[in-house]
Amino acid sequence: MSGKICAEVFYEFWPWVSTIAVLSVDKFTGFFDWLFARAERLKVLDVRNYVMNSFLILYIILPALFVVYIYLSVIALHLYRWHRGQLLNVVRRDDTPLRKFVNVICYCWSVHARLWHSYEVIGFENVIKLQQQKKGLMIVYYHGALPLDVYYLNSWSHVNHSIPLRPVVDHFMFKVPGFRLLLDAFGALWGPRSRLEEVLREGEIVIVSPGGVREAMHSKHYQQIWGKRDGFAKVAEAAQVPIVPMFTENVRQAFDFPNRFKGEIMRRLYEYTRLPLSLLFGGFPVKLKTYIGEPIDTIGKSVDEIRTEAQYAIEDLIKKHQHYRNDWWKGLLFSLKQRFVN
């Protein structure tokens, strides 16, 4: 057992150990100073600037821009609350000033999605038909490194169809500074099951990822990581509402975690802390296209049957619409080509 653990540690951390070893050798010998100076004299490559700029762009600047955009929405809501003196419940009330203000924020997010990702939604008529029948429904989706497709779909739905979606989020999100106000304004939920059942019976739309943060941080090649989770199926079965599968093409080409941070050691760290302790990179302007599948009826089915059908439906969407799911770099180049050439 100890040998297996040592092998896992070596596999996951040898790049960092080897890098520290090389830098330590350089510290005492000055080898890289000599090599880089020679490369610069020969005008081959400014290696230091190349490495530093690449790291800054991929791991700091682009992810930070997305976080800044989220916090601009948070700040706007705080300014509104300070001005109005209270935050109203606007999830279903079109006549409130805050609902109109939320629509303005949604419009800004929709513009961002369209300009940066040429965002599209395919199959939303499946949701509209159920809403016209005054039926609640549950959208079940594959969780990318960031759920930016949920942000975009919610905003797109608000702007184009005046249909709000109520995302189910991990409880720790309500503890992120400033986020509670944003989550409350958009009707986000975190449980318990009885509350989700009540919302669905009222005819609202709940959007949930069974994989959650675990899938976001550790999924490789668009693999679904549900474990034994079936709470969503129990809720849908109890509320007697259909499940609609969803997948967004290229969502992991936009943002992702390095594969080296998806191994067993980091997985155990997450299971112990329940915190997303990892290093995010991305922010690429790739083509994003959300696919909404056919509704799955839950009446007369067991929880296991509902769970299995939902998982198979999402896997089917991934197989049909995700190009190069097993090669991240080819997928990135193809998604950029989709965005700027096609």
Q: Any overview of this molecule?
A:
The chain crosses the membrane at residues 13-36, 56-80. It is a single chain. The chain has 14 helices and 8 strands. It has 342 residues and is an alpha/beta fold. It folds into 2 domains: 2-41; 79-340, Glycerol-3-phosphate (1)-acyltransferase, CATH 3.40.1130. Helix 10 (231-239) packs across helix 13 (303-321). The longest helix has 38 residues, at 47-84. The protein is globular. The model is unreliable at 86-93 (pLDDT under 50).
The CATH class label of the largest domain is: Alpha Beta
Q: Strand-and-helix sequence, N→C?
A: HHHHEHEHEHHEHHEHEHEEHH
Largest sheet: 6 strands, mixed
Instruction: Label the overall shape.
Output: globular
The figure for the number of domains is 2
> Which residues form runs of ≥5 with pLDDT under 50?
86-93
CATH fold name of the largest domain: Glycerol-3-phosphate (1)-acyltransferase
Q: How much strand content do the residues show?
A: 5-15%
Placed side by side, the strands forming the largest sheet appear as: 1-8-5-2-4-3
**How much is the average pLDDT?**
83
- Separation of the first and last Cα atoms: 52 Å
